Amino acid sequence: NQQILLVSRPQGEATLDNFRLVETETPPLRDGQVLVRHHYLSLDPYMRGRMNEGKSYAAPQPLNEVMIGGTVGQVEASRHPRYAPGDWVVGMGGWQLYSVVDAHQPGALRKVDVTRIPPSHYLGAVGMPGVTAWYGLVKILEPKAGQTITVSAAAGAVGSAVGVLAKQRGCRVVGIAGGPEKCAYVRDELGFDDCVDYRQHPDLRSLAAALKAACPDGIDGHFENVGGAVLDAVMLRAHAFARVALCGMIAGYDGQPLPMLNPSLILINRMRIEGFIVSEHMEVWPQALAELGELVASGRFRPRETVAQGLAAAPQAFLGLLKGRNFGKQLVKLVD
Ligand code: NDP
């Protein structure tokens, strides 16, 4: 087996030195265990938070252990009656080629059908990021047909799903993304009504003006993935009683200071801003995955992916994700 361990904690920005690739032996299976060969590893922004010591909603990743991460792969060997070699499964296998899983533990493995949906999408649109989009949109923004919904990091794994789900509900959907290529994808392939390229609008006034042009009727609900100036600009365009689903603040994960949100706008607009963590809402996963799976299987949602090749490429690809270099869901392919 090959594994990538976290060997030190970042001082400021994460670096390649924080990770180490090691070769290990896979232990023999005990009763109830399954050996999974990972085909894809998911790279996600939350991993940066786990690299830090200190208080958060989840415990830090221990040093000198395999980096945490979602995986999709095939059962190679099984000593559990529900799993047979060849089965496709999603789990938290971590940054390694193989994992040994105690399959009786609730939620340890989920069997998936790869006949209609390619396996990698179970780590993105039909997996944790998709459910994140679904929860924030459906449960927090509660969109109604005709309303305007905005979403930042719109070309990303979560943002793209937010837009597609909101279009399904008859909303006007406006994305915010970095660069003309991402904006073209958001508009032309995902079917958003418009997309604002925030890189063209480095100051708040110009960004707010671009949002005004894209959202002539104001903003009813905003899904926030980035934090910082975009959120301030949205607040300037928000309707009275608008809602914000606060999903992520990736602009600050790698130690950068975030510009302060102006709280007086919350009062003036009588807004409701609500943060959430998708893993605390397991009750919505089946419903959300059913809707997302149907959208992807029917071709109405074509999620984009950025795929790094081979386990050794994972740290570099992860650092790229933290810099916004990914386009769509960031994955690592582990099997040729
Ligand atoms: P994405 O695929 O959206 O990738 C991150 C994107 O963020 C980049 O591609 C980049 O797109 C954008 N971005 C904007 N500003 C920055 C910046 N300063 N640094 C880096 N990236 C930036 O990732 P995900 O879809 O996986 O996650 C999106 C957000 O959702 C994250 O904040 C994540 O933490 C959060 N999340 C929260 C969950 C929860 O339970 N609350 C669960 C899952 C994800 P662009 O070029 O367009 O700027």
Can you describe what's shown?
Keywords: Oxidoreductase. Residues 14-332 form the Enoyl reductase (ER) domain. This is Putative NADP-dependent oxidoreductase YfmJ. Pfam families: ADH_N_2, ADH_zinc_N. Its EC number is 1.-.-.-. The protein is α/β, with parallel strands linked by helices and 336 residues long. The protein folds into 2 domains: 2-124 and 304-333, Medium-chain alcohol dehydrogenases, catalytic domain (Quinone Oxidoreductase, Chain A, domain 1, Alpha-Beta Complex), CATH 3.90.180.10; 128-279, Rossmann fold (3-Layer(aba) Sandwich). Helix content is 26%, strand content 26%. The protein contains 9 helices and 16 strands. Helix 2 (128-141) crosses helix 3, helix 2 packs across helix 8 and helix 5 (204-214) crosses helix 6 (229-237). The longest helix has 14 residues, at 128-141. The structure holds NADPH dihydro-nicotinamide-adenine-dinucleotide phosphate. Residues 44-46, 129, 132, 153, 155-159, 177-178, 182, 225-226, 247-248, 250-251, 276-278, 321-324, 326, 329 line the site of NADPH dihydro-nicotinamide-adenine-dinucleotide phosphate (NDP).
